[in-house]
Amino acid sequence: MDLRHIFNLKKTAVTLISAVFLSLLTINVSAQQQADADSISAAKVEHGQEGEKEESISETILHHIADSHEWHFWGHGEHKVSLPLPVILWTNNGLVSFLYNKHDKDEHAKTVFEENGQKFVNFHGKFFYASQAPNSHGEYIELDKTNEIVNAKPLDISITKNVLSLLVSVVILLVVFISIAKAYKTREGKAPKGLQSLLEPIILFVRDDIAKPQLGYRYAGFMPYLLTVFFFVWLNNLMGLVPFFPGGANVTGNIAVTMMLAICTFVLTTVNGNKNYWGHIFTPHVPWWLYPLMIQVEIIGVFVKPIALMIRLFANITAGHILILSLISLIFILKSVFVAGVAVPFVIFISVIELVVGFIQAFIFTVLSALFIGMAVEEHAEH
User: Whose CB among 44, 237, 270, 332 lies 3.0–4.6 Å from 358's, allowing a Cys bridge?
Assistant: First the structure.
């Protein structure tokens, strides 16, 4: 099968992959801001339920699907075995960096540490400027009347667990697809072999069952993006199910990542929209007296589409992880080893289902992206 017309766009494909990589790398700040809500909630629990030493099951589950400054392998406390990741903070005195295990002994803001002449505290993996004196709980943070942290914090641009997993997936994609592109160039007219033969059926699937039906004869120009987003989502979905390094990160279950992917589709749709597409939005085919209502509805629809893409992927992947962890938690909630006889087979079954769901979610995200782009580029005669 001759796919050179796709992979002759190698430079474009690599550029697009690199652009997605660089764009997604910048979402670390957004991901950290999203995780701040978890830290604040933890603060409320600590101060609202003083003396409670055991985490609730829900907090444990949320902790496992959240981002982190380390890759935890096993153990707890002094017996913990993990891969510390670099913490990079942009502070009032410039850039500060250190490995997380340097200041991970206390995550309750009760120990002040100094870096670059500035004092910080670690509160549930988030770094704040330390208060001058501890509060009534011995923590060097200040809380307002609603128990929210008011301490200033540096800009966190760290290489977290999700970011590292994202980088690994990008490297894998670049290596695989650059090698496949070279194979199509050097083995012109020959039967595919190796990675080329392994992935060609999936590439054909994306082309024949996703791109062509939605984009028609214009499909070739959008194939680099559709292949990139399909394999990026699929690969990260699968890596999220692997319980050991470099898997286990919840990349596609991070709404900042799915938001960035949805923005890529939104930008492509908006930039490639033709006059027929914009005409449907600003001059819809309805009686003139409905224009004030329908134009608003159409404009809202332009933004609802990428929002739906973002939430669908985030919710489905996160729900799968939570379901598996919840089934495992039943063993500890009911405190019965016999429950394991039921919970463990269910976990194995759901894990197998998640393998299928990982592919389905990649397919849905890609086909909807192709659909939205196709709606933007189609001509009036193609309706």
Answer: 237
Spans in the chain with pLDDT lower than 50: 9-54
Q: Does residue 308 sit in the same domain as residue 375? A: yes
Backbone angles phi, psi at 93, to 5 degrees: -105, 20
Please state, in angstroms and rounded to a whole number, the distance separating the CA atoms of residues 284 and 265.
Answer: 23
Q: Does one domain contain both 279 and 378?
A: yes
DSSP 8-state assignment for residue 207:
I
Domain boundary among 131, 159, 187: 159
Structural domain that includes position 134 = 29-159
Distance CA 159, CA 149 (A): 24
DSSP class of residue 206 equals I
* Interatomic CA distance for residues 319 and 196, integer angstroms: 34
Amino acid at 360: I
d(CA 93, CA 260): 30
Question: Could you tell me if 251 and 165 are in contact, meaning their C-beta atoms sit under 8 angstroms apart?
Answer: yes
pLDDT tens track for 311-332 = 999 999 998 888 888 888 888 8
- Residue 328 sits in the same domain as residue 343: yes
Decide if 142 contacts 149 (C-beta within 8 A). yes
* Domain stop point among 159, 178, 198: 159
| Number of domains making up the chain | 2
Instruction: List strands edge to edge, sheet with 155-156.
Output: 94-99, 86-91, 155-156
